[in-house]
Amino acid sequence: MSEDVTAATTVPATAAETSPENPWPLQLLSQKLKMHIDRAPSAWVEGQVIELNRRGGNAYLTLRDMDAEISLPASVWTKVLDRQEIPLERGSRVVALLKAEFWLKTGRLSMSVKDIRPVGRGDLLARIERLRHALAAEGLFSDARKKRLPLLPHRIGLITGRDSDAKKDVLQNAALRWPAVEFEIREVAVQGNTAVAQVIGALRELDARPDVDVIVIARGGGALEDLLPFSNEELIRAVAAALTPVVSAIGHEADRPILDDVADLRASTPTDAAKRIVPDVVEELARVRQARDQLRRGVTRLVERETDRMAALRSRPVLASPEVMVATRHDDVERLKGRAHAAITTAVVRAADQLVHLKAQVRALSPQKTLDRGYAVVQFSNGGSAPGTRHHVVRHPAEAPAGTDLTVRVAGGRFSAQSTGHGEPAGD
Fold first, then answer.
1. What pTM does this model have?
2. Burial class (CB within 10 angstroms; exposed 0-12, middle 13-18, buried 19+) of 157
3. Residue 9: pLDDT band with limits 50, 70, 90
4. Domain annotation for the chain: domains and CATH numbers
5. Amino acid 293: pLDDT
6. What's the number of CA atoms in the CB half-sphere (13 Å) around residue 10?
């Protein structure tokens, strides 16, 4: 029996082990919450003072986030506030060292301000410059990633304040320069804790529209604190990620939020933005007229130059009297024909003379000529006893012994003879 009571009254070690049958005492939960919260470190936070009430030695204030609708009440000893050179008031931008505290008896969680410091203009500028250098080191401001603006945008996305002078400046100056220009306008808060979220939302909405060719973020001048949303890191990264070219037209020439560095084009003022994003129709028409005049002069010069070349070509003798060329060639052909005829005639005459000479040589060397000079050819008659064939020529007396029948051929013809056998050798 005692063991069952002991098991039922054993306190669970962790919150996960509790149950309706075995819960924690409220005191234990409060103690554990206090231990957990006491271990949490202090943290420096930035915000804007929207409420400040002094009550004796304590003061109660409410801090609001600079970029979101989030606020947090806190308490601070008045001696901490009295250390400030410039008294804090509502609207002050501060950084505060906050420590969470849990009151065990009442179960109340409160935030205690251990230290607080106003954020001055110098601090804001230093913080902006640190962020500017960090983003530049990432390459977000590189010229290589900046997109070129279209020559003539058909529709312009405009993000600006509600009924602001910046909106009027952009619309009026753009319409004066190019009356046919169209705008897609998004009116948002351009200062305060909701400005960043609204500008980013409008930017993403316009960037998603395919008919928007360029986006202009415009705001008039103001104090440094008023322009802080346009140096917000989240907004800067959203502009860097946009696919549509973005033009920054924030404040005046001297104002330089980080948005100017990441935008694809920085305009010194909203009016300057209108002049930079659309061409002037008067100037464009003048350029068209100038181009037409230059083209007309160029064509005229070309025609005149080619006309002069044609005239020069026509004045040449070959074109002025083309029959001269034919006559000259006819004379050349006739001259060549005469030379060819003379050459052929000469060759024929020379060949005929050579032929006559050769014929004379052949005739002089022929046997008939020899016979004509008184010589005779002695041959054996048919049936002769000398060796050889028919009409074998007798070359030696010994070949024709006495009684040999012979045939003698002279210039006038042949006759028969018979050798007597008396022969003599030829003399020297």
1. 0.56
2. buried
3. low
4. 2-120 (2.40.50.140), 125-279 (3.40.50.261), 370-418 (no CATH)
5. 93
6. 10
What pLDDT does residue 235 have? Answer: 94
Alpha carbon of residue 6 to chain centroid: 83
Task: Give the mean pLDDT of 13-21.
Answer: 90
Residue 414 tokens, joined: 């042949």
How many angstroms separate the CA atoms of 79 and 73, rounded? 18
pLDDT at position 323 is 78
Give Cβ neighbours of residue 190 (< 8 Å, ≥ 6 apart).
Answer: 160, 161, 164, 199, 219, 229
And the tokens for 175?
Answer: 């319409």
HEC string for the chain: CHHHHHHHCCCCCCHHHCCCCCCCCHHHHHHHHHHHHHHCCCEEEEEEEEEEEEECCEEEEEEECCCCCCEEEEEEEHHHHHCCCCCCCCCCEEEEEEEEEEECCCCEEEEEEEEEEECCHHHHHHHHHHHHHHHHHHCCCCHHHCCCCCCCCCEEEEEECCCCHHHHHHHHHHHHHCCCCEEEEEECCCCCCCHHHHHHHHHHHHHCCCCCCEEEEEECCCCCCCCHHHHCHHHHHHHHHCCCCEEEEECCCCCCCCHHHHCCEECCCHHHHHHHHCCCHHHHHHHHHHHHHHHHHHHHHHHHHHHHHHHHHHHCHHHHCHHHHHHHHHHHHHHHHHHHHHHHHHHHHHHHHHHHHHHHHHHHCCHHHHHHCCCCEEEECCCCCCCCCCCCECCCHHHCCCCCEEEEEECCEEEEEECCCCCCCCCC
Q: What is the pLDDT of residues 88-120, one digit of tens each?
A: 888 788 889 999 999 988 889 999 999 988 887
The answer, yes or no, to whether residue 8 has pLDDT greater than 70, is no
